[in-house]
Structure formats: C-alpha cells, structure tokens
Amino acid sequence: MTIEYRVLGGLELRVDGVDVAPSAPKVRQVLALLLARAGRVVPADTIVREVWDDRPPASAATTTQTYVYQLRRILARVSDRAAEDLSTHQNGYCLSVDPLALDERTFRDAVARGRAAFGAGRYREASTALRQAELLCPGAPYEGLDHGPLLQAHALELAEVRAHAVEVRIESDMLLGRHRELIGELRLLVAEHPFDEWLHGRLVQALGKSGRRSEALQAYQAMRTLLDTELGLRPSAESRRLHAELLNA
User: Fold this and answer.
1) Relative to the CA of 227, which of 15, 110, 112, 166 has its CA 20 to 30 Å away?
2) Contact predicate 3/21, CB 8 Å
3) Over the stretch 95-126, which tens digit does the pLDDT of each residue have?
4) Residue after which a domain boundary falls, among 54, 78, 99
5) End of a domain among 57, 82, 99?
6) For the whole model, what pTM was predicted?
C-alpha cells in the first residue's frame, strides 16, 4: 500500500492513488500544518493560533484534540503504522513522514540538485532537475486551504523557491543555446508577472539571440513603457545594457 502526501497544489492524502484526505476545512488545515512541520513537534497552542488566529473558542484545546483524533482515524484505515506516524507529545503533535512520500521533500531535493548542477556548470543536468521540480509543483502550495500565519508564510516560501528554480532553469537553457525554445514560455511568464523585470530581460535576450532583433526592441520598449507608466521607474542597468547591445548589433 502506497501513501503519498501532496501539498504542492491542493492538499491530498493519496492511498494507492485514491485521495482520502479529510474534507472538513479545519481538519485539513491541521493536517497541512503538521505536514509543513513534518517530523517536528507542533505545539498545541501553535495549532490553536493557526486555526483560530487571535479568536480561539473556549473549547479550542479540546477541539484540536478532536481534529487530531479524526486525522488518526483516517490514517488508521490505511494501516496501524500510518496511524502511529501521528504521535502525541506532552506539548503537541508530530506527523512523521517518509521523505519519499511527501511531494514537498521531493520538490526541494530536485531544486537542490538543479542548483548544485548549475553552480558546477552542468547546465543540461540543471535544466533537467529543475524541470522535474517544476512539474512537481503545478499549482500554488497549499492551494484552497485556510491559511493561518505559519501556513501562509510556508506557502509563500515554497512559491519563492519555485520561482527561483524557474529562473535558474531558464538561465540554464539560455546557456545551452535554447533561446528559440524559450520565447513562448517567456511571453507567457511576462504576461503572468508583468512587473518582473528579470523575465522581461530574458524575453528581450531570447528574441535577440534568435535573430528577431526588431521584436526584441519592441519587447524592451513595452517593458520600459510599463515600468514608467505604472511604477514611475526606469529600466535597470542590466536592462539598459541589453538594449544597447541590441542597438549595436
């Protein structure tokens, strides 16, 4: 029997491919918090603050125990071992998870391999590992859940890890000469993140390296106009350098 915990997107607890995660929102929130701190004890008062913020009911401690009991019952249907993975401690609860069973761990490992390969100049290996990481994180981390402060911070941190992984992978592909192949993806990313000047610069660069100088100049002008109109900013020194290279090409 195979157990998989998925948090990179919506929360799922899959057993042999079937999602058996709880449906109650606050029980899901508790499961998500335990997974975000997998292998570590999460204090009960931390769970209370996460679920109810600064307005916990008088029954918050007892209700938290009930939520954990419901989670343990779900795990017990999988196996006795799975139920034992959710342990009670003097001050809180801990969910022990096989690293291979949690998509976040697999994602972080792939990102680490990709970054290490990039730093060593193994750009093809870096691109492959980072594409694998991107596929593991197709949506917003912990999507569709109520977020307390800890879970919100954790989800934002994961989103930043993914965004940087995309940047390093694009840089790897650039260094491998895959400029033409990147143009469509970069246009989409620029549309999704219109104020990300680094992405605009990579689109300008990819167009220029693909022999599409006039389109590259148009892309630069569009970026400059957007920054000026919306933010009152001028392009960075790096962007202006790319523009000068295009003009002098």
Assistant:
1) 166
2) no
3) 999 999 999 999 999 999 999 999 999 999 99
4) 99
5) 99
6) 0.90
Q: Residue 233: which CATH number?
A: 1.25.40.10
Question: Where does the chain have alpha helices with state H?
Answer: 25-36, 44-52, 60-78, 80-84, 103-119, 123-136, 149-175, 179-192, 197-209, 213-226, 237-248
Per-residue pLDDT of 138-172, as tens digits, reads 889 999 998 899 999 999 999 999 999 999 999 99
Instruction: Count the neighbouring beta carbons within 10 Å of the beta carbon of residue 100.
Output: 11
- Asked if 19 and 57 count as a contact pair (C-beta separation under 8 A), the reply is no
How many CB atoms within 10 Å of residue 43?
14
| Structural domain of 15 | 3-99
**Overall domain count for the chain:** 2
Residues 197-201 have a mean pLDDT of 97
Residue 152, burial from CB neighbour count under 10 angstroms (0-12, 13-18, 19+) = middle
Give the CATH number for residue 24. 1.10.10.10
Q: Are 93 and 42 in contact (CB under 8 A)?
A: yes
- Alpha-carbon distance 63 to 196, whole Å? 44
Residue 163 domain flag: no
In the predicted structure, residue 212 carries a pLDDT above the cut 80: yes
